[in-house]
Amino acid sequence: MVGDASTLWTRREIADRILKGENLVIYRGQLLRIPQSWLQAHPGGSLAILHFVGRDATDEIDAFHAEATLEKRVKNYIIGRPELSENGIWEPMTPPVATGWAHRSAPGKRGEGRWVREAGLRTKADDDSLLSSEILLVSTDKATRSSDEPVPTEETLKPPPATLSLEEQTEHSRAFWELHKRITDAGLYDTPYLSGYGPEVARYLVGVTASATAFVYGWYITSAFFMGFVWHQLSFTAHDLGHMGVTHNWVLDRLLGIFIADFCGGLSIGWWVDNHNIHHREWGICAMQRT
């Protein structure tokens, strides 16, 4: 449901909606409500969205989506704008999923559901080896704090202290996008098919030929070695396809990825993308907090 883009949402109102199970994220100074239907259909997986509930996801959304996709999708989810700090910055919340909470929708009942504690957590208060900004999820029977809460609370949404101030993080973001523009203008994101993937294809063909030849002559260990070599090397191309970094067309890269990963390697490219995208997003957040 599209809301009034001019409606101002206070921090308390946003927190209340999140605690009711809604998926609210900030994008370019606008408040987006992501419906459950899109959460499940999102090509990058549901966790990519859940880990930014209550956060400003502008950098991540812009980095992982084409402009045409943003123009088509984002406007459908705008429900207003968030109340920002005096410096015009949104102070991030801790997404419920980051502290082990998952919201399960009631089958056939729109807008209803319940919170489920999937994992407990440990912080610096429990483990001195952790940074103040770090949260470690553990099995619920090993959790030492908050394991008995029936639902997430406002306290759950409070972010742990970070090494960098919000102003410093904003400055890092600005510097990143300046670098990104320079790289784009230089054409370094363009795929060099002949010089880039030409040697890769040649390497695969040599490996396949060597494996087949060895098999014909009964050198099975040698054949298996070259077969494993080809599978190992193919994973690098599957990685690039999963990042939509070959043709830069989601459909074509996903189809090629399905052929290489699913049919040749026996690994679901959809599962890999879902998990790997989270790895990149969370690594970026942790790197910023550790700087």
What does this entry show, briefly?
Helices cover 49% and strands 11% of the residues. The chain contains eleven helices and eight strands.
Throw out a few tags for this protein:
291 residues, alpha+beta, Flavocytochrome B2, Chain A, domain 1, four-stranded mixed β-sheet, two-stranded antiparallel sheet, 8 strands, disordered C terminus
Please tell me about this protein's structure.
The protein has 291 residues and is α+β, with helices and mostly antiparallel strands. The protein contains eleven helices and eight strands. The strands form three sheets. It has a four-stranded mixed beta sheet with strand order 1-4-3-2. α8 runs antiparallel to α9 and α9 packs antiparallel against α10. The C terminus is likely disordered.
User: What order do the SSEs take from the amino end to the carboxyl end, as H and E?
Assistant: EHEEHHHHEEEEEHHHHHH
**Which term fits the overall shape?**
globular
- Sequence stretches where pLDDT stays below 50 over 5 or more residues: 142-147, 285-291
Strand order of the largest sheet: 1-4-3-2
**Count of strand segments:** 8
Which structural class do you get from the secondary structure elements? alpha+beta
Integer average pLDDT: 83
Helical amount among residues, as a percent range?
40-55%
**Portion in strands:** 5-15%
Number of helices: 11
